[in-house]
Design goal:
The complex is a heterodimer. By secondary structure, chain A is an alpha+beta fold. In chain A, about 20% of the residues lie in helices and about 35% in strands. In chain B, about 30% of the residues lie in helices and about 15% in strands. Classes of the chains: A alpha+beta, B alpha/beta.
Chain lengths: ~450, ~325
């Protein structure tokens, strides 16, 4: 339980009454039913005993009612994740489904992303919150166009850990040479896309090879099983707590003005309580640190970090805290509190990649809203500078963006923000594009360059 | 490697990877901070939020999280209970004591009132859960609530697994599962037009076990029927049903006294108990970790009607 010692120190009740707690790891799966994705998800859940008896009964019953004679023991695992009536009726998965399971080491949130229908929308949704994405390919088919597209989206969104599961290895007779060829193709594509360390694993979801346990059928493979990998990869928030500068977008100001819930004898201490509440986006902050606030650019010192009555010595992502500051600066929702001297200059222009998710296309000159952190402001898209070919990742000319396009555009903001690129800081460099009238989420945006066309 | 092992394995069996980092939060810490972030976003972006509060464990956890989110200030929104009129009396007593302790305003929408004046009719099967939708939507409209917090979790049901954290409802309260906004990073979009409202589910990503571990860790008080107690019960549809004014046994059903507890508390007419000797929160955590049935499968008659029972009720504006 050494992994919880620090939490125990900062939040004393964290360990009371024991049962062991692990960390929380979020991952997404991408691929199509043909690649055996549902079987892989079903296998992971089944072999980690996350499918409870009544769920399994229901799925087994429906499978046999529909005459599903699949080799997966007669169980159609897709029924576990196809939650909507339309999905079951049409036999397709429309929307991202979330599944939960745990092992002795970690709890997992699995975002199961459909491969065919609206794949960009679903991939982007799954990938933006994931520590890892598992891309499934059929060992017999190797790297297909769809695989390239999935990997392109992951590269653009800078997913921390990419795992390629080469499935149906049993159908290749567990042949090392055949696997090596597919793995080499995968690595060639990921290198071309600029994806760093990609994990490639030979698996058979149907048989269970290398999914939970390492398989005796692949003695030539010396790496971890899929689950072993998921249990040991570092979390994005842990990496970014250590490698990125402190950022806290202010959600609201806590100023109870006497209406407090503390015991009566303590109430006078809280009469003038004022703290800035938000979730740490990146980095680490200690009491006594100097911070800079945007807008305004003022500097002050952190005098306290509060977590619902507990005073913390330090805060890091993704904790939701409230900061007390030495000086009374003008800070409201939308402000960013940052480690001193680390905020970039405020700008009103940026170049962005836009993952267009709405059926209504984007044309140059559109007026939209953008949401960065806790700040929603008006914006105009003066120019669409191109569209990415998802086969080559090259930029093609385009004057509008259609649904599922990944485009590039310049964006002009109504008020200046301290913008960072997505490469510099994932949280600060990500934004939503929102329809100003009906409020629909039109696009996911990432900052490629601050301050206009580069 | 099973959920079972988590509760019973000695610590040595689950040693962390050798690369343990100094900055590490447990899954409960992460889920708690995620929920507090969502609650604060909704309060910052909406005019008149309200929290659905039944006295059930998920809504109790929600209220606890809201109290933490705004400490040392009060919870800045009222709570709303859609009372079927068939609730367990000890849960109603707990509800009233809890809102009094936290200084929160309680709004009640009574299904009984609707039945009394003829706006709703009692169903043939006697269950009142589906009847809650109309009083709920009326109460949302009357309170001009633009955001409604709920304690629904994605692990409860297949339709809920596809629900967004901030989920738009049209002016009829309807959910359109095929036309949901994508949710990206931790940026929530609460924009809506006049007449629309959103449902906000801050504990979407919690499992039943997470909820129980959190209740244990935080020392949160619950209605007593969540813990093992003796009760007059009879068996119907494989569930132990309490003998009560709205849940009387039929002639062929044998009443016996057993040690039971409830995994969910809802309408007495459709909520079943499970046999259990888990009398403490620690024992319940162990029991849930080892359970082989989902909580709704074990205890909710209304979800057994069809494969899409929850989806159909949600489309109509249910919780």
């Amino acid at each position: 339980m050494t992994d919880t010692l620090l939490t125990e120190a900062v939040w004393p009740s964290a360990l009371q009454g024991s049962p062991l707690q692990g960390t929380l790891f979020r991952f997404a799966t991408a691929g199509s039913v043909d690649d055996g994705k549902s079987t892989l998800v079903g296998r992971l859940l089944h072999d980690s005993k996350a499918i409870l008896a009544d769920q399994l009964d229901a799925v087994t019953r429906t499978s046999s009612e529909r005459g599903f004679g699949g080799a997966a023991g007669g169980i159609d695992f897709a029924l576990l994740t196809d939650g909507l009536r339309a999905e079951r009726e049409q036999g397709i998965t429309i929307d991202v489904a979330y599944r939960y399971f745990a092992t002795a080491h970690r709890s997992f949130i699995l975002a199961d992303c459909p491969g065919h229908v609206q794949y960009t929308r679903n991939m982007v949704t799954g990938a933006t919150t994931a520590d890892a994405v598992v891309v499934l390919i059929d060992a017999r088919k190797g790297v297909l166009e769809q695989t390239r597209r999935h990997l392109s989206v992951l590269a653009l969104l800078r997913v921390q850990h990419v795992i390629v599961a080469v499935n149906k290895i049993d159908l290749l007779g567990y042949d090392e040479a055949a696997y090596t060829e597919v793995a080499a193709d995968v690595r060639a594509v990921t290198a071309e896309l600029g994806l760093g360390a990609v994990h490639v694993i030979p698996v058979s979801a149907l048989v269970g090879d290398n999914v939970v346990d390492r398989s005796p059928h692949t003695p030539w493979y010396h790496g971890p099983s899929l689950l072993e990998l998921l249990e040991t990869l570092p979390l994005v928030d842990e990496i970014e707590s250590e490698t990125r500068a402190f950022r806290l977008p202010v959600q609201l100001v806590l100023r109870p003005q006497g209406a407090v819930v503390v015991p009566e004898e303590d109430a006078p201490r809280y009469r003038d309580y004022r703290a800035y509440a938000g979730q740490v986006a990146s980095g680490t902050l200690r009491v006594g640190d100097t911070v800079t606030v945007s807008p305004g650019g003022g500097s002050t010192v952190v005098t306290g970090i509060d977590f619902a009555g507990a005073e913390l010595d330090l805060a890091f992502a993704p904790q939701s805290v409230a900061l007390r500051l030495r000086d009374d600066l003008d800070i409201a929702r939308g402000a960013v509190i940052a480690a001193a001297g680390t905020l970039p200059p405020q700008v009103k222009e940026l170049t962005a990649a836009l993952f267009w998710l709405d059926a209504r296309p984007l044309a140059a000159g559109a007026r939209v809203l953008v949401k960065f952190g806790t700040s929603t402001i008006q914006a105009i898209v003066p120019e669409i500078t191109g569209r990415r070919s998802l086969d080559t990742l090259a930029i093609e000319t385009a004057d509008r963006l259609e649904v599922n396009d990944i485009g590039q555009a310049t964006v002009r903001l109504a008020s200046a923000l301290p913008l960072e690129t997505y490469a510099e800081n994932r949280r600060s460099g990500a934004f939503l594009v929102i329809h100003p009238q009906d409020g629909a989420t039109l696009a996911a945006g990432i900052v490629l360059a601050a301050g206009g066309a580069s | 490697m099973s959920a079972h092992d988590i509760a019973t394995a000695p610590p040595a069996a689950a040693a962390p990877p050798a690369t343990a980092r100094p900055h590490r939060l447990t899954q409960l810490d992460v889920l708690e901070s995620e929920a507090i972030h969502i609650i604060r976003e909704v309060v910052a972006e909406f005019e008149r939020p309200v929290l659905l509060f039944s006295g059930g464990k998920d809504s109790v956890v929600m209220l606890h999280l809201a109290a933490k989110a705004f400490w040392p200030g009060r919870v800045p929104f009222p709570v709303l209970h859609v009372d079927t009129g068939h609730n367990f009396p000890e849960v109603i007593a707990f509800r009233d004591a809890t809102v009094a302790r936290l200084g929160v305003t309680l709004e009640v929408a009574g299904v009984q009132d609707y039945i009394d004046d003829g706006r709703l009719q009692e169903r043939a099967d006697g269950t009142r859960n589906p009847l809650q939708t109309v009083p709920l939507l009326d109460a949302i409209a009357a309170g001009r609530h633009d955001a409604v917090f709920g304690g629904a979790r994605r692990d409860e049901d297949k339709a809920r697994a596809k629900e967004r954290i901030i989920s738009l409802r049209d002016e009829f309260g309807q959910w359109d599962p095929r036309n949901q906004r994508p949710e990206l990073w931790n940026l929530y979009n609460g924009r809506h037009t006049v007449g629309q409202h959103v449902r906000a589910f801050p504990i979407s990503n919690w499992t039943e076990l997470d909820v129980w571990r959190y209740i244990e860790r935080e020392g949160i008080e619950l209605p007593p029927l969540y813990y093992a107690h003796d009760r007059e019960v009879y068996l119907r549809d494989g569930m132990w049903r309490a003998v009560g004014p709205v849940s009387a046994p039929l002639a062929h059903e044998t009443v016996s006294r057993r040690t039971v507890r409830y995994r969910t508390v809802g309408d007495m007419s459709c909520t079943g108990a499970v046999e259990s000797d888990a009398a403490s929160v620690h024992a319940v955590v162990r029991e849930v970790a080892q359970s082989t049935l989902t909580e709704r499968g074990a205890t909710r008659a209304d979800d057994r009607i069809s494969e899409a029972a929850m989806e159909d009720r949600k489309r109509d504006g249910y919780f």
